[in-house]
Amino acid sequence: PGLYLGCGVAFPGDLVASGDPAESDDLAWWLQIKRGEEMSAVPEARERSNGRHELVRARQRMLVDGLDYRRVLKGARGTMTQVQMAEVLGISQPAVAKALKAAEGTPDVLANFSGASVMEVCQRFAAGLIDHDRVVHELVSWPYVDEGSFDEFGEYTGPESGTVDDLSVARGLGLIDDGVYADVLQGLAGREVPRT
Fold it and tell me: What does the pLDDT look like over 132-143, one tens digit per residue?
């Protein structure tokens, strides 16, 4: 589940797919960006010089590897017993059962895309698993959902992720750079994208 921050953007729950405690660091950094305490797009030269680029790349690779592992586990469930999986993985059968339970909530990758969400596609780009042209193509082609709105009580109603606002969040987190962001916006200008 995501968390609406009241600033016009829903912070998606799938932003950091691992569920590890470091997720709070990502949220804190994202909140700094939204409050204007940090530039949303740090120049690439500065990112590389202070090691930020390498850290983002390594972390995102770890996160998408975790997603891929859970998806492979789900797929193996149909062809192997838990005991067989445990033997192959070198872990206990109860550990396999626990991993399978955790994998149940992992969404499948959308057909013709490299991820199950806009954020995952951006994570794969940040991890170096897809190139500039592919990430732009996928983000321009993505089946975005309508953005939410506020009711008469000021409560947000609508999706927590899957809107074009996810692009700004991904850019702010350093998952996509200014070039990708600009190319995607240019591509989206040529198609009708759901907005309220």
Answer: 999 999 999 999
